[in-house]
């Protein structure tokens, strides 16, 4: 019943006011118009004879307060403000395009449903009662472009959500959207969450490479973040991104390098035959590649030699060098390009040869006479130490990133929900305006009645 | 004719006015609702370096028709859960893309056009609008806004994939039919895939400026490292185990395959050598011709280094097959350089074919097809030594492994690759979205609204129709007055004529129940002939007019009123008493007073009678008329003057 009153009560109140206006107009017509002298000359009847107006008005006011009051829990608005970098450019925190439809998208609504705070409603029900609109957007002329960073979220109850409190719904929305935004756009820490002990099954040199890669990964992770915010420091530990980057670099450049040297000098391998086999296979394939690159390079050099002298012609081009000084450059001819191709192939070949040489060196080392006693255990201890160090560094990195993301996410958005008091005041104002209109029209009708009476007396 | 009385007409036609007002307002509402359109608009800008030239980052022309392509719209609809509920084509046709050109830019373009020059500046800012009429079921501001938002999202991502980040890290691991291929072939495919992927990831990491995906946490460099580790540790390990243990599902097939490949490479090498010799011949002929025609630069040319004056364009516009123009890069490469470049490529191809043939030999030798070759060497002392030289200089050492172990390792490797490719795909997808957002900037948020403000229009329509209704009522009323005046009014007295009287009485007689407040007045002039004779026709008419006017003034503003002149000085008046009146007597008295007051100085004799249906106890009009006639009393407007008074008046004159 109260929902019906809420849905149609407002129309009924407005209809009453409108009917009174129409009645007054019809009355004027039936009186054949009202002359100015009648308006100024008509005397009002005493108040006690017009008490019915005040009674009706008071009744109307009470009814309208009741009906408008039904809106207070059933209608509510909130302002969603996006405060992260990029919001004013229409972007998400990760630089991708912001989509307004995501704010009340199925993912957010599902989170609202899953919180089990709003009883007996589904995400589909919530989609029907929530609406979003940009608070400002600017026009399409060049001087008025603006991307809105504030959105109005409006809740209007329907039959299925009539039992909910609007303010509560929007508070739940606020929490759900904040949760969704944080989950979507705060950094995934999986690359920093590896269990390094999984590497222990690999051969020693592979462990060195894996630990080095992981240390490098942590360093790069920290480097990227420090580029965005150099001054950020943990409130608990005082560490910043660059300090953790330095730790990771140390692990890679010192601890892992020491381990690698130790393994090689002690010819350590858990399965020498397999490792050597791998190296030999790698070297074979690298050698085939290197041969191709060498041939390619040689062929470009041969082409350069083949270039006939009298087919070459260079002209000069005045320009500026990288210091802004006048510089006489020259046009390129085919030989320039051939040289570039030769160099590129040569570079590849050299790189491959370097890898082959490195593999041969390792193979020589591993093939050397027996391991020194205790050296495997020593390597294992070093690996444990590095893994512990790496785990600790990764943990610090994760904590720091989480703290950073937490602070960022807290500032991502603010949601301010209209208070009960402001909504109640709004309802009272609405009722007051309607009541005033009714009061005025009742007085008008009563006044017309006075005019009619005066005319009869005059007749 | 009756006076123009606005409120009389309005009162009379009030039901018509109200009906007209409501019907027309409702019709207007349905019409406006049917014409309602929902519009969403956003403004975007292409912000890559060459956007002002109309080019995308990859050098292709920016084509704004891609925004509302069927593919993009279908994807947007799928994301919104609207697939199947609406037509894609209909939604596509609801999108319009309009360039926004600043006034100053337009002025520049116009000025250039007037001079016969073409402006090279292309618009970079576009307004994208989605318009849906009420013909689309469920059309609303929410729908147009969501459709436009999602479409721009999808377009941004697709634009990046098509014009910026065109290389795609595809997970082709799924396509490797492990059961169908031999171990070596599977490993080769995985290795090739990894090489390709690592190269692409290297390219990405170089140009992505440290991009790290928020959803996966990985950067392209991280992924490159992971794929490299897999290749280094797992792939080469597989090679060593397979080749070292000479494992194969079917050695004969394997050997046949590599024999065939070896033969193919031999053929390639031969063909390339032929191509090479032909290219050589062309080059030599070219150079000879250049020399013989004096188009080379000899050492004896005075000074062949001179400073360049102009640098020529890299691009030109040419006609395309479709009739428009396209921008294409001009190839300035000299033919001689091209010939030499071709020579180098042909030579490289021949050389690479040789290397590939060696690789085949290595495989065949590993699987025992090629046996070691006996080589006899002669020593210095004359003795000979026979050694076995391997058929290939390459050999793989390995620990032992079984086929099952190989299959398990391949399976594990492919699982790990699939995981990494999934991460790479997700990272690349987010990178695409990122690039799209960087290259297509949003200048305004999507705003949605209606083309017709129904509330405002309805207020205006209601007022207009009310005014029209009132105007029509006035018009009809006035036309009624005119017709009444022409056909039913007595011109002299202004009352209704005899015909109207008869009609009124006939109509009233048909009523089954007369109101008890209904009254009938009968007035008869008795000395009309005397007045005519003594005062003249004009004065007699004036008196009749006065009587008629007074009756009308008293009666016509009452409900159910009728005042008629039957001729020969006989008036009839019919009306309803007000609710506050219970007798007609006061009205009769008032009528007598007014008539006597206004009739003039000449004594006019008249008889006046009036009855009220309730007082008379009769509710039939003819009876009422009879009773009123019977109750007529004689009156005189003024007392006649005595003889002396008349004489005094005459003397005064």
Please, could you describe this protein's structure?
The complex is a heterodimer of chains A (459) and B (653). By secondary structure, chain A is an alpha+beta fold. Chain A has twelve helices and six strands. In chain A, helix 1 (2-30) runs antiparallel to helix 3 (51-74), helix 3 packs antiparallel against helix 12 (420-458) and helix 8 runs antiparallel to helix 11 (375-410). Chain B has a five-stranded antiparallel sheet, sandwiched between helices. A four-stranded antiparallel sheet of chain B has the order 2-3-1-8. Helices cover 55% and strands 14% of the residues of chain B. Chain B has 653 residues and is of the alpha+beta class. The model of chain B has no long low-confidence stretch (mean pLDDT 85). Chain B has three domains: 37-164, Bacterial polysaccharide co-polymerase-like (2-Layer Sandwich); 172-290 and 330-431, no CATH class; 489-652, Reverse transcriptase/Diguanylate cyclase domain (Alpha-Beta Plaits, 2-Layer Sandwich).
């Amino acid at each position: 019943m109260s929902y019906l009153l809420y849905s149609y009560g407002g129309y009924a109140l407005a209809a009453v006011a409108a009917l009174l206006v129409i009645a007054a107009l019809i009355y004027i017509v039936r009186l054949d118009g009202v002359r100015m002298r009648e308006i100024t000359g008509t005397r009002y009847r005493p108040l006690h004879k017009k008490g019915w107006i005040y009674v009706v008005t008071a009744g109307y006011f009470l009814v309208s307060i009741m009906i408008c009051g039904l809106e207070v829990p059933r209608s509510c608005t909130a302002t969603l403000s996006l405060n992260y970098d990029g919001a004013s450019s229409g972007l998400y925190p990760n630089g991708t395009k912001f989509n307004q439809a995501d704010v009340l998208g199925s993912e957010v609504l599902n989170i609202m449903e899953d919180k089990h705070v709003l009883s007996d409603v589904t995400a589909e029900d919530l989609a029907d009662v929530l609406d979003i609109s940009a608070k400002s957007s600017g026009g399409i002329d060049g001087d008025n472009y603006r991307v809105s960073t504030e959105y109005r979220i409006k809740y209007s109850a329907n039959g299925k959500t009539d039992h909910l409190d609007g303010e509560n719904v929007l508070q739940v929305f606020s929490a759900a959207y904040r949760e969704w935004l944080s989950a979507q756009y705060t950094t995934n820490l999986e690359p920093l969450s590896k269990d390094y002990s999984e590497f222990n099954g690999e051969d020693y040199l592979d462990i060195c490479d894996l630990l080095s890669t992981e240390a490098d990964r942590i360093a790069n992770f920290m480097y990227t973040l420090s580029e965005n915010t150099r001054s950020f420091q943990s409130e608990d530990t005082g560490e910043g991104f660059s300090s953790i980057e330095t730790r990771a670099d140390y692990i890679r450049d010192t601890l892992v390098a020491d381990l690698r040297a130790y393994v090689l000098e002690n010819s350590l391998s858990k399965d020498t035959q397999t490792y050597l086999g791998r190296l030999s296979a790698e070297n074979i394939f690298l050698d085939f590649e290197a041969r191709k690159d060498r041939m390619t390079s040689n062929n470009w050099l041969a082409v350069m030699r083949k270039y006939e002298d009298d087919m070459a012609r260079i002209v000069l081009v005045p320009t500026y060098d990288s210091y802004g000084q006048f510089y006489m450059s020259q046009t390129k001819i085919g030989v320039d390009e051939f040289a570039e191709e030769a160099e590129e192939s040569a570079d590849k070949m050299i790189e491959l040869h370097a890898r082959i040489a490195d593999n041969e060196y390792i193979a020589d080392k591993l093939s050397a006479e027996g391991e020194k006693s205790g050296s495997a255990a020593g390597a294992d201890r070093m690996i444990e130490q590095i893994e512990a160090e790496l785990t600790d560094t990764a943990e610090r990195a994760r904590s720091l990133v989480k703290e950073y993301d937490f602070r960022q996410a807290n500032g991502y958005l603010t949601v301010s929900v209209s208070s009960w008091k402001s909504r109640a005041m709004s309802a009272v104002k609405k009722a007051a305006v309607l009541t005033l209109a009714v009061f005025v029209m009742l007085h008008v009708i009563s006044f017309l009645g006075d005019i009619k009476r005066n005319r009869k007396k005059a007749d | 004719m009756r006076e123009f009385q606005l409120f009389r007409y309005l009162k009379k036609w009030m039901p018509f006015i109200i009906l007209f007002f409501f019907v027309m307002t409702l019709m207007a509402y349905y019409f406006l609702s049917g014409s309602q359109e929902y519009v969403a608009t956003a403004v975007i800008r292409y912000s890559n370096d060459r956007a002002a030239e109309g080019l995308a980052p990859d050098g292709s022309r920016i084509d704004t028709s891609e925004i509302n392509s069927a593919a993009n719209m279908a994807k947007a609809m799928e994301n919104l859960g609207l697939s199947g509920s609406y037509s894609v084509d209909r939604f596509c046709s609801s999108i319009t893309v309009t360039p926004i050109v600043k006034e100053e830019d337009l002025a520049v373009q116009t000025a250039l056009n007037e001079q016969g020059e073409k402006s090279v500046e292309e618009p970079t800012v576009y307004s994208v609008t989605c318009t849906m009429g009420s013909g689309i079921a469920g059309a609303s501001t929410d729908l147009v806004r969501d459709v436009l938002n999602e479409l721009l999202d999808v377009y941004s991502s697709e634009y990046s994939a098509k014009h910026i980040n065109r290389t795609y890290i595809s997970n082709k691991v799924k396509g490797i039919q492990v059961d169908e291929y031999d171990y070596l072939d599977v490993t080769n495919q995985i290795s090739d895939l990894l090489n390709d992927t690592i190269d692409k990831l290297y390219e990405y990491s170089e140009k992505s400026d440290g991009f790290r995906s928020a959803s996966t946490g990985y950067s392209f460099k991280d992924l490159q490292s992971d794929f490299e580790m897999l290749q280094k540790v797992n792939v080469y390990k597989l090679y060593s185990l397979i080749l070292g243990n000479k494992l194969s599902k079917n050695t004969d097939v394997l050997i046949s395959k590599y024999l065939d490949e070896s033969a193919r490479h031999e053929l390639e090498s031969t063909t390339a050598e032929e191509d090479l010799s032909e290219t050589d011949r062309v080059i030599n002929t070219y150079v000879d011709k250049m020399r013989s025609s004096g188009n080379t630069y000899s050492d004896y040319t005075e000074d062949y280094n001179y400073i360049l004056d102009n640098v020529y364009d890299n691009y030109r516009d040419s006609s395309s097959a479709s009739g428009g123009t396209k921008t294409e890069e001009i190839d300035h490469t000299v033919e001689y350089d091209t010939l030499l470049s071709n020579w180098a490529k042909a030579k490289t191809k021949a050389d690479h074919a040789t290397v590939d043939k060696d690789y085949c030999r290595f495989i065949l030798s590993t699987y025992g097809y090629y046996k070691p070759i006996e080589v006899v060497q002669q020593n210095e002392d004359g003795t000979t030594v026979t050694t076995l030289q391997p058929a290939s200089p390459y050999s793989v050492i390995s620990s032992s492994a079984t086929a099952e172990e190989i299959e398990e390792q391949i399976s594990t490797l492919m699982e790990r690759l699939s995981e990494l490719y999934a991460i790479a795909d997700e990272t690349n997808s987010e990178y695409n979205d990122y690039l799209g957002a960087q290259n297509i900037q949003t200048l305004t948020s999507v705003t949605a609204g209606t083309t017709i403000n129904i509330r405002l229009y309805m207020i205006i329509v209601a007022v207009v129709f009310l005014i029209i209704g009132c105007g029509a009522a006035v018009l009809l009323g006035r036309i009624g007055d005119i017709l009444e005046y022409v056909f039913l009014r007595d011109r002299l007295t202004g009352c209704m004529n005899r015909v109207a009287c008869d009609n009124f009485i006939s109509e009233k007689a048909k009523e089954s129940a007369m109101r008890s407040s209904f009254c009938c007045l009968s007035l008869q002039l008795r000395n009309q002939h005397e007045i005519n004779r003594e005062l003249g026709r004009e004065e007699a008419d004036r008196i009749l007019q006065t009587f008629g006017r007074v009756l009308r003034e008293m009666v016509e503003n009452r409900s159910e009123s009728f005042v008629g002149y039957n001729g020969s000085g006989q008036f009839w008046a019919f009306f309803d008493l007000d609710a506050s009146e219970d007798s007609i007597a006061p009205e009769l008295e008032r009528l007598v007073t007014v008539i006597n007051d206004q009739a003039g100085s000449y004594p006019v004799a008249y008889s006046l009678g009036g009855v009220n249906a309730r007082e008379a106890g009769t509710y039939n009009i003819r009876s009422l008329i009879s009773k009123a006639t019977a109750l007529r009393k004689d009156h005189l407007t003024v007392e006649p003057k005595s003889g002396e008074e008349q004489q005094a008046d005459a003397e005064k004159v």
